[in-house]
């Protein structure tokens, strides 16, 4: 058993010793059985949140309404959730109320896929009510119970299905796939933020091409922001050579596939509720991509782009099969006299000390000196720059 479970074992034991049932559940059990990296262990128990809190010195109410308490134990945190069922999914998303129950079976029934409905006790024994072990072995994603009903309860599960396809390199069971095809429009009820999280995980998974194909084939793509009617443009995605390795690269790639004009990019990123920081990074990639497609960039253009943007743009160009002299570009960037604005030997204050007044002219002078240094026409040290400025007068 991986260390992460060994460390968490006393938490289960504490609950058991107090007379409650407790299990590891969900993603961690699935991942340990697949010999995949386990990033966090979730615990499910018959104890009520108040009872859980009494058993541990340090706890935080992270989702008390849904029965979740986060417990700190030996410098690790664990989400402990009371066995529960969900009911009244009035609006195709999240239940209206959760009801705590006294047995594990009810709790496992509410989970999305058979491979996510496995539980493990302190002895390492697996509880498997829906043949999740079989599906794990055969690499199958299958809804727990009737897929149609389950997707009506929570339409996000359709996105989760394709996300797990990509991450785990699994196939989609036929009835589950058909139910997505028949109910994709329910995705419209789901918040963009929740969809985005699954979409990004799908895009970054090792099997993203196959998953993306299913995302298109089932028409799920028609119900996410700005993708409606764009299947033809997006259909290139599954044929691409590499998987993007970063979220910003994924968005840049999608924007390029959609042949989106520059003035639309901001709106697109906003529709998907991406952060300003992500949007700015993506815009820098697109700008450099356009520039490189147009002409060999100057040293100053490489400097302005910066290392991160350059590396990301090269990655995106490779994925798109765009021929690009990536090594030469990197070599040229690495050979630049300065690689970041802050590396310039002087700053605005230096110019003010020399008698310049703050203002637009000062900024222009600073830019000019920086450009001269980047171009290798001026040495990057104070004396050389002072000499140069003196001679200008
Ligand atoms: P990851 O490795 O991405 O964390 P995970 O399976 O742990 O994968 P989570 O979103 O962390 O996914 O959810 C934990 C567990 O809760 C799942 O394994 C599943 O049993 C259950 N679950 C999560 N979201 C849903 C949902 N929308 N419908 C039903 N069950 C869900
Ligand atoms: Mg998880």
Description:
Belongs to the tRNA nucleotidyltransferase/poly(A) polymerase family. Bacterial CCA-adding enzyme type 3 subfamily. The chain is of the alpha+beta class and 393 residues long. It has four domains: 1-138, 2-Layer Sandwich (Beta Polymerase, domain 2), CATH 3.30.460; 139-236, Hydrophobic Seed Protein, CATH 1.10.110.30; 240-336, Methane Monooxygenase Hydroxylase, Chain G, domain 1, CATH 1.20.58; 342-392, Serum Albumin, Chain A, Domain 1 (Orthogonal Bundle), CATH 1.10.246. The chain is 51% helix and 11% strand. The protein has 20 helices and eleven strands. Strands 3-4-5-2-1-8-9 form a seven-stranded mixed β-sheet. A two-stranded antiparallel ribbon has the order 6-7. Strands 10-11 form a two-stranded parallel sheet. The protein is elongated, with a radius of gyration of 27 Å. The mean pLDDT is 94. The chain binds adenosine-5'-triphosphate and magnesium ion (MG). Magnesium ion binds at residues 27, 40.
Question: What topology emerges from the helices and strands here?
Answer:
Elements: H1 3-17, E1 22-25, H2 27-33, E2 42-45, H3 49-55, E3 58-63, E4 68-73, E5 76-82, E6 84-87, E7 97-100, H4 104-109, E8 118-120, E9 126-128, H5 132-138, E10 140-141, H6 147-153, H7 156-168, E11 171-172, H8 174-183, H9 192-204, H10 208-217, H11 231-234, H12 247-257, H13 262-271, H14 276-294, H15 299-305, H16 307-319, H17 326-334, H18 348-353, H19 360-374, H20 382-392
Parallel strand pairs: 2-5, 10-11
Antiparallel strand pairs: 1-2, 1-8, 3-4, 4-5, 6-7, 8-9
Bound molecules: adenosine-5'-triphosphate and magnesium ion.
